[in-house]
Amino acid sequence: MKITRTVSVEVWRQTDAEAHGRFVTYDVQGVSPETTVLELLDLLNEQLPDGDSPVTFDDGCREGSCGKCGVTVDGVPHGPEYNRASCQQHVRAFRDGDRVRLEPLRASAFPVLSDLTVDKKKALRTVVKASRGPAGLKALTNAGCISCGACVAACPNGSAQLFVGSLLTELPPLMKDDDERRDRTAQVIETADETFGPCSTYGDCTEVCPAGLPLENLSAVAREHLRNQRQTK
Ligand code: SF4
Ligand code: FES
């Protein structure tokens, strides 16, 4: 027999991008240790008091591969289980089994659109476009990055260095020659510097990355930067 209980869910409610948000607490019934964060939100929406609008969140594959989901669970982007997307996080791992706080991914580059939904695409795409779009997307795919944005939210500086470093790890072989490599990598680094915060190698990004991308990927940024400087002298 499946054992279920009631969990008190403190969730961020914000009607639109301009509105002030606040936490609202709801009791959600029928939750099991195996319930995932997105399933908990489904249950919450099914049990909302009359008149309350559904809590919005980014839904996708629910298999940890599309990068769409991503909420902050008790202060941790995606949730307390290392290297798992929110759709793969379970109630059994919550710090307090009877209570949880859900809020959007927090980063100045990711404005909240409503409730738990943020616009992370715009900022991440700006960097990918700087790498000549399709090549950048292919580089991210080759690196295993799912563009979830959790590394940015986990970083105390709001840096996207794990995302950028993963892109730059795989971009050079996709460039047609050294000139293109220099131009594109310089554009990527400059755009990332303008869009996100600086990297202080705290390493928090690697704990939340669902793709398990390593800290070594950060070094690709310095490598391409130094290489470009040497070539322009
Ligand atoms: S590097 Fe990891 S955490 Fe950052 S966007 Fe890619 S998959 Fe997400
Ligand atoms: S919904 Fe696709 S990674 Fe979570």
Automatic annotation (TrEMBL):
A Pfam family matched in the record: Fer4_8
Biological classification of the source: Bacteria, Bacillati, Actinomycetota, Actinomycetes, Micrococcales
GO annotation, biological process: aerobic respiration; respiratory electron transport chain
UniProt name for this protein: 4Fe-4S dicluster domain-containing protein
Keyword entries, A-Z: Iron, Iron-sulfur, Metal-binding
Alphabetized GO MF terms: electron transfer activity; iron-sulfur cluster binding; metal ion binding
Cofactor or coenzyme needed: [2Fe-2S] cluster; [3Fe-4S] cluster
SUPFAM superfamilies: 2Fe-2S ferredoxin-like, alpha-helical ferredoxin
Domain 2Fe-2S ferredoxin-type per the UniProt entry, residue ranges: 22-106
InterPro entries: 2Fe-2S_ferredoxin-like_sf, 2Fe-2S_ferredoxin-type, 4Fe4S_Fe-S-bd, 4Fe4S_Fe_S_CS, Beta-grasp_dom_sf, Helical_ferredxn, SDH/FRD_Iron-Sulfur, Succ_DH/fum_Rdtase_N
Positions of the 4Fe-4S ferredoxin-type domain: 137-165
Family assignment from sequence similarity: Belongs to the succinate dehydrogenase/fumarate reductase iron-sulfur protein family.
Organism in which the protein naturally occurs: Kocuria soli
